[in-house]
């Protein structure tokens, strides 16, 4: 019998990254054993760890390994050790942006699923969050994070009193093709969902790029008459997400808006530590939690690994072609939560102390449900 063998390029990165990566590896090993395939996880450097080792946030060896792998599993990058406002200094986040760009990963899926057991963990009222099942589709390789940057240190009139001073600019740029491909992905995703609804979020009352975004979204929408479609301005969306989150099915938006709105939406699901993501496009797909390296809790074994574990589920479904294994991981997470197991971020006063697990123990607990 031939055993299917996959290669996954693992990038633990910084802060809580190595802890949540280890927890998710336990789950990946367990699910691979149960479903009869093997996964060769190759560890590589990215972010601050890579800056320390070789002076740049995305070494060539990492990118080559990512290109050669079946999927990339990334944890998180960044931390105070590398925080600097010196525009010439390397930053860990450059590694993340560079790998997304180099692999052509223009479409970032961020599912916001409220597990029944976590309805009370949300900062919103239970009746508002129960049953929320939203998919945020974020454009990932364009817009403000990739536009031209400029800095002039003695620009005329830029000082507080009209004297020369420092002036900076970050360009927000989009071509219609960049918009169309991600909006199309959102419509394809919506067409396969029960509510078949897309909300396109922009700032078309002000920004030129958003006016283009809206035109393109309407053009694509016309090709999908079976999908209900609406537009929403981003400031209103930020409010609606906490007022009536259940109204949303698929939300599609540009890079910066999606970054911010998805962190906000994570609290509907109980914690930033619950939000997984899949970055898809032209090259090797990449899977990572939506959160950062959480320096405030790094090294304490208290981080929630479920966003990373749910990213493994997305990898099994969208990267490795193992949908049954993906379902099994999600079911194992659900069982762990239903049985009352919590990490500190999703525990409350009613959680018995012996049900609050550390990061590694939560990984082992989910893995045990897969045995
Ligand atoms: N994809 C990535 O690697 C990202 C990296 N960053 C970087 O991470 C560093 C820290 O950024 P922050 O703004 O603090 O954002 P963050 O997402 O790391 O943390 C925000 C808050 O959420 C908590 N949190 C995050 N993940 C958690 C988890 N799994 N379990 C429990 N609590 C969790 C943190 O403890 C913190 O209080 C910065 O250097 C930033 O640039 C930020 C966002 C994404
Ligand atoms: C470097 C940032 C753009 C990372 C981030 O906040 C994200 O992708 O959510
Ligand atoms: Mg973010």
Automatic annotation (TrEMBL):
Binding-site list for NAD(+): 292-304
Cofactor(s) in the UniProt record: Mg(2+); Mn(2+)
Protein name: 3-isopropylmalate dehydrogenase
Cofactor binding notes: Binds 1 Mg(2+) or Mn(2+) ion per subunit.
Gene Ontology biological-process entries: L-leucine biosynthetic process
Gene: leuB
Gene Ontology molecular function terms on file: 3-isopropylmalate dehydrogenase activity; magnesium ion binding; NAD binding
This protein's UniProt keywords: Amino-acid biosynthesis, Branched-chain amino acid biosynthesis, Cytoplasm, Leucine biosynthesis, Magnesium, Manganese, Metal-binding, NAD, Oxidoreductase
Record-listed substrate binding positions: 100, 110, 138, 235
Residue span(s) of domain Isopropylmalate dehydrogenase-like: 7-366
């Amino acid at each position: 019998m031939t055993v299917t063998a996959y290669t996954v390029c693992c990038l633990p990165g910084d802060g809580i990254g190595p802890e949540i990566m280890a927890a998710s590896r336990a789950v990946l090993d367990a699910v691979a054993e149960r479903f009869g395939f093997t996964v060769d996880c190759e560890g590589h450097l990215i972010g601050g760890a890579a800056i320390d080792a070789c002076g740049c946030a995305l070494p060539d060896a990492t990118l080559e390994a990512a290109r050669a792998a079946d999927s990339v599993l990334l944890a998180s990058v960044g931390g105070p050790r590398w925080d600097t406002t010196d525009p010439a200094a390397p930053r860990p986040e450059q590694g993340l942006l560079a790998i997304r760009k180099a692999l052509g990963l223009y479409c970032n899926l961020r599912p916001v699923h409220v597990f029944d057991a976590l309805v009370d963990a949300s900062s919103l009222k239970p009746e508002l969050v129960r049953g929320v099942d939203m998919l945020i589709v974020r454009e990932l390789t364009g817009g403000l994070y990739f536009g031209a940057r400029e800095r002039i240190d003695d620009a005329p009139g830029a000082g507080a009193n009209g004297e020369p001073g420092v002036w900076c600019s970050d360009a927000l740029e989009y071509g219609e093709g960049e918009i169309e491909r991600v909006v199309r992905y959102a419509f394809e995703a919506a067409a396969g969902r029960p509510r078949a609804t897309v909300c396109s979020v922009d700032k078309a009352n002000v920004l030129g790029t958003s006016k283009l975004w809206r035109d393109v979204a309407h053009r694509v929408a016309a090709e999908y008459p079976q999908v209900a479609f609406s537009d929403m301005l981003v400031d209103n969306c930020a409010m609606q997400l906490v007022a009536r989150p259940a109204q949303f099915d698929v939300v599609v938006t540009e890079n910066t808006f999606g970054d911010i709105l998805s962190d906000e939406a994570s609290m509907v699901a109980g914690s930033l530590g619950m939000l997984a993501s899949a970055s898809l496009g032209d090259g090797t797909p990449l899977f990572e939690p939506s959160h950062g390296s959480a320096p405030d809790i790094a090294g304490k074994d208290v981080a929630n690994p479920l966003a990373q574990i749910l990213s493994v589920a997305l990898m099994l479904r969208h990267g490795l072609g193992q949908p049954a294994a993906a379902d099994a991981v999600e079911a194992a997470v659900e069982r762990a939560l239903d049985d009352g197991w919590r990490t500190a971020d999703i525990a409350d006063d009613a959680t018995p102390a012996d049900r609050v697990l550390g990061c590694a123990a939560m990984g082992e607990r989910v893995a045990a449900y897969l045995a």
